[in-house]
Amino acid sequence: MRVVPEPAVGAQSDTGLEARLAAVRGSIADAAGAAGRTADELTLVVVTKYHPAALVRRLAGLGVTDVGENRHQEAQAKAAELADLPLTWHFIGQLQSKKARQARRYAHVVQSLDRASVVDAFAPTEAEPDPRVLDGFVQVNLTDDPGRGGVAPDAVEALAERILATGTLRLRGVMAVAPLDEEPRAAFARLRTISERLRTVEPTATDISAGMSGDHAEAIAEGATHLRIGTAITGKRPDAP
Length: 241
Ligand SMILES: *Cc1c(COP(=O)(O)O)cnc(C)c1O
Description:
It comes from Curtobacterium aetherium. This is YggS family pyridoxal phosphate-dependent enzyme. Helix content is 38%, strand content 16%. The radius of gyration is 18 Å and the shape is globular. It is an alpha/beta fold. It has a single domain, classed as Alanine racemase (TIM Barrel, Alpha-Beta Barrel). The chain has helices at 14-34, 53-61, 72-81, 97-103, 116-120, 156-166, 184-201, 216-221, 231-234; strands at residues 43-47, 66-69, 88-91, 109-113, 134-139, 169-175, 207-209, 226-229. Helix 4 (97-103) links the parallel strand 3 (88-91) and strand 4 (109-113). Strands 7-6-5-4-3-2-1-8 form an eight-stranded parallel beta sheet. Residues 47, 49, 70, 92, 177, 212-213, 228-232 line the site of pyridoxal-5'-phosphate.
């Protein structure tokens, strides 16, 4: 009998990870095909929050180019540890101004622009007159609960103007999470009309970041260009640190 070595405690098998990644890529290709689109129009952002840097490294070895994180300190540490990898880091969590100023040192894309104060934190300052230019998405709140992340749909244009005024954020489009109590496709259809409105402010801001593990097919059907997928690829997330 062949003895298969047990993986080290805490390590996840690479074959499991590889199989889940392949399954998600297959599902994305199917959904794209059903919508008359092709998978190469879509950017897969693998959400690696709470997982160790070693997992991100394995994903990069499997061809993943874009990763998403939602906590500043954790993202900063992982980006530093993995600085040798050609990864694009997407920040997808709530930000405060102070952390936003720090996040721009390692992040390439900030998907969670949802308040003027956060947007303004990316503008040049006296101390940092020439900061890095990042890609930015306006996060839209698709629920009726103003406590949720994102700006109200009717405030999207004003925030977009503010983003353009920084000169240091390239406005790429809109981002949203589907509400729990609504059919995701209906919510993503609303996001699509909001995206069309945004383009009247900035015609090149055509991207739509929508769709997670459970609803990426619906998002693709409604025009998503960026998918943020965590657990379907990484397996169960460790508890929040
Ligand atoms: C955690 C998270 C995701 C990924 O969710 P999964 O259900 O694990 O795919 C996507 N978007 C945001 C904003 C998140 O916080």
